[in-house]
Write a structure and sequence with these properties.
By secondary structure, this protein is mainly α. The protein contains 3 helices and 2 strands, in the order αααββ.
Length: about 100
Amino acid sequence: MALEKSDVEKIAHLARLHIDATEAQEVANRISSILDLINQMQSVETRNVAPLAHPFDAVQRLRPDVVTEKNEREYLQKIAPSVQNGLYLVPKVIE
């Protein structure tokens, strides 16, 4: 699908983009090459290809779920400006 210079100028106007008249033909050529690549990719037969979640057949290594830090909740609530029933009280921001 070839895009003409006038098409690029119309699209630029609708998108509120400024493209110089000297650049319009180059932009048209670039967009046309992108559209040609898309058409080429769409012509590939993919019916017998299974969908992939990831291109590599790898398993994510997970670390053990172990607590590595001590619980400092009591200490942090003691130094907090305002606490009630184990919750931090903060000033209202939205009215």
